[in-house]
Structures are given as structure tokens and as C-alpha cells.
Amino acid sequence: MSSATRSFTIRVPATSANIGPGFDVVGLSLSLWLTLSVTLSSGSSPIYVPPKITYTGEGADEVPLDAYKNLTTRVALYVLRCHDIPSFPSHLSIHCHNEIPFGRGLGSSGAAVIAGVLLANHVCNLNLPIERLLDFALMIERHPDNVTAALVGGFVGSYLRELDDDASAKASVPLSEVLPEYPADAGPEWGLDPPPPVPPHGIGHYVRFGWTDAVKAIAIIPRFELSTAKAREVLPQAYSRKDMVFNLQRLAVLTTALGQSPPDPELIYEAMKDRIHQPYRKSLIPGLPEVLALTPSSHPGLLGICLSGAGPTVLALATHNFERIAEDAKRIFKEANVDVDWKLLELGEGSKFEETA
Ligand SMILES: Nc1ncnc2c1ncn2[C@@H]1O[C@H](COP(=O)(O)OP(=O)(O)O)[C@@H](O)[C@H]1O
Ligand SMILES: N[C@@H](CCOP(=O)(O)O)C(=O)O
């Protein structure tokens, strides 16, 4: 019996969502990566061999290596099952190398979800267009900001289409039905009845904004995790008109201002302020108000400063003076007993697929 091997890599960037006023709307991709190196052998044995996962980098001590428990492979399995493919092909090996820290507001779960959607697409040659890949990702991450930026790259704005009643019901099934908890002894056929909820078409829509290369991102990353779910629980259900208008005005300006050359610190600093999520998340992140109080006049080169995603990472956009901005933010966090690491990052590309053999 002959055997053939196919190998490919999938690279998905970290993201920073919200950028101040764009809660659940804007995101940008950053130069930190989740990389999957995938090998698929076939034909040498008739016995089904389940997927083998190995993992290095961020999260290596906590991530499950069972394909029915790991977020990336569970997402891939969901996509396969929506295409009437009950399980992974035999003899699949996946090595994940992850540079994106967990639970810090840098889109680790969004990257894992996009990696899973792309894994299914390429392992079984589904040839799904970008829009359909996004539909699957949005059945899992219900806000579009991270997953869209992780998939297409750049500085991106997105919205969820208003769905008709039928599509809306399909798109709002509980996550437990999209990604069921597999029991320890689950075989490849487990969970096929009832079949998984197939996403409606065209859930998410996006546009890429301009971005000036002079703008770099300093990620100031506290050494503690804050789950996105917990950081969403503290948000109110309703907002005043005044606060909504405050954010809308700034968001409209910000999406163009970050593409202008040279970038205008006065315009951008004010445009990165927010009243929809940051004020409510302060209680979860000691030192946050003090760090957000750095300004372009106290720190030349700084353009604006905000919470990255749901936090606790702070994102400072700047053109120069990176070390001073970062070290001062680190010192301020330290005064609140929070240790941080910082990284100077670039606006990243979107997800990449490369056939290696
Ligand atoms: N590469 C990965 N592989 C498997 N699971 C992951 C991966 N990245 C993130 N996760 C899961 O997502 C969780 C973090 O998600 P979340 O709370 O949304 O924070 P973040 O802001 O990092 O996206 C992790 O605790 C882990 O369970
Ligand atoms: N808009 C979301 C973004 C969450 O991003 P993450 O990187 O923290 O997962 C929110 O603010 O809740």
C-alpha cells in the first residue's frame, strides 16, 4: 500500500480589539503569531489513527492536547461536521507554536478559533471563501472585532448583519451546541446526532482602514490573566445617549486619523478615549486609570493609549520614544502591585497558509 504526506503551515496573528471607542467594532492585527505546522499522512494503514497534537510556547502548560478538548481542533471539527465530515482524517499531526499570551486581551482565543476554521478548510480542501470562514468563526466568537482582524489582517472595522428570524435563531444557538463538551471516551462518531448548527451565510462584514507605517504598538502586558467572559460581565446592558455619542464621535475620527501621515497626536489621543467599556473594567485591572493618564505632552511620541481588547493589556500607539513610554507604564503598574512585560509590535498581516510539502 502506498503512503503520501502533505504538510502545511497556518499562521494567525494576535489582535488588539476596541482601540478605545470601537468596542466590538474595530480591531488590528499585531506581529505575534499562533503557528500550526500540520502533517497529513495517508494510505499506509487501514486502522484509524486519531490526531496527534503537540504544543509549545504561550499556554503550553494548560492547553489540552486531546483533539476533542483543544479549542482549535474542536472548532475544526465543528466546521468539518457542518460539511458532513464526521472526523479528522487519519494520521493527522498538528504542532502548535503560540506567541500570544492567554487571557491578556491580545486575541489568543480569536486566533485559536481562526486557526481551527483554517485547519478544517485546508485539511479537507473545503475551499471556503473568506466570508464563509468568518461565518464559522462568528458562530464561536460572537463579537467580530478580533476574529475579523485575525483573519484578514490590518486595522479593520466590522459589523454583524441584521439577520432574519430564522437565521438569527441559527446564529444564536448556545456555544455548548456549537462546540459540545466531548466526554473523555468520545469516539469519532460522538455528537453527530443532532447535527451541528450550520451558520447562516454572510453574518459578518468588514472594511480595512488606512494605517500609517510610522505608528507602532506598544503592548504593556500584565502578568495576570483576565478572561474575556469575566471582563464582559462587568459591562452594563444599556448606555446613556451622551456616552454613545462620545464614543461614536471619536470612533469616526480615529478610523481615518490613524491612516494620516504624519499622525496627529492631539487628534488621536482624544479619539482613543472611551466611555463604553474601559470605565467599567477599571475595577478588574489595578493601575489602569493611572496608566491611561499618560499623555503626548508628558510622553512625546505617544499618540493614544487604551485597553487592548478586554484587557488587562494596555495598548499605547506611538511613533517614537517607545522605551520611555513602556517603562513609565511599567513603573505605574508596579506602584499598583502589577508586574508587566512589554513588547513593541507592528501592525501585522492577516492569517497565512503555506503548503510546505
Ligand atoms: N492556541 C490556543 N489553543 C487552545 N486554546 C487556546 C489557545 N489560545 C487561547 N485559548 C483558550 O482561550 C482562552 C483565553 O481566551 P480569552 O479569555 O478570550 O482571552 P484572550 O483575550 O487571550 O482571547 C485560554 O484560556 C484558552 O482556554
Ligand atoms: N470587544 C471585545 C474584545 C475582546 O478581545 P480579547 O482579546 O480580550 O478577547 C471586548 O472588549 O470584550
Q: Major sheet: size, sense and barrel closure?
A: 7 strands, mixed
Number of domains: 2
Determine the mean pLDDT: 94
The radius of gyration computed from the alpha-carbon positions, rounded to a whole number of angstroms, is: 21 Å
Binned strand content: 15-25%
| Stretches with pLDDT under 50, minimum 5 residues | none
CATH topology of the largest domain: Ribosomal Protein S5, domain 2
DSSP, total strands: 11
Structural class: alpha+beta
The number of helical elements comes to 12
Q: Tell me the overall shape.
A: globular
> Which percent range fits the helix content?
25-40%
CATH level-1 class of the largest domain: Alpha Beta
Pathway: Amino-acid biosynthesis; L-threonine biosynthesis; L-threonine from L-aspartate: step 4/5
Catalytic activity: L-homoserine + ATP = O-phospho-L-homoserine + ADP + H(+)
Organism: Neolentinus lepideus HHB14362 ss-1
Protein name: Homoserine kinase
What does this structure look like?
- It comes from Neolentinus lepideus HHB14362 ss-1.
- GO terms for molecular function: ATP binding; homoserine kinase activity.
- Its EC number is 2.7.1.39.
- It is a single chain.
- The mean pLDDT is 94.
- The chain has helices spanning 71-82, 108-123, 130-138, 144-152, 165-171, 175-178, 228-233, 241-257, 265-271, 278-281, 288-291, 322-335; strands at residues 4-17, 26-42, 52-57, 92-98, 155-160, 204-209, 216-222, 302-307, 314-318, 340-345, 352-355.
- The two termini are 20 Å apart.
- It is an alpha+beta fold.
- The chain folds into 2 domains: 4-205, 2-Layer Sandwich (Ribosomal Protein S5, domain 2); 213-345, Alpha-Beta Plaits, CATH 3.30.70.
- The radius of gyration is 21 Å and the shape is globular.
- Strands 1, 2, 3, 4, 5, 6 and 11 form a 7-stranded mixed sheet that branches. It has a 4-stranded antiparallel sheet with strand order 8-9-7-10.
- The chain contains 12 helices and 11 strands.
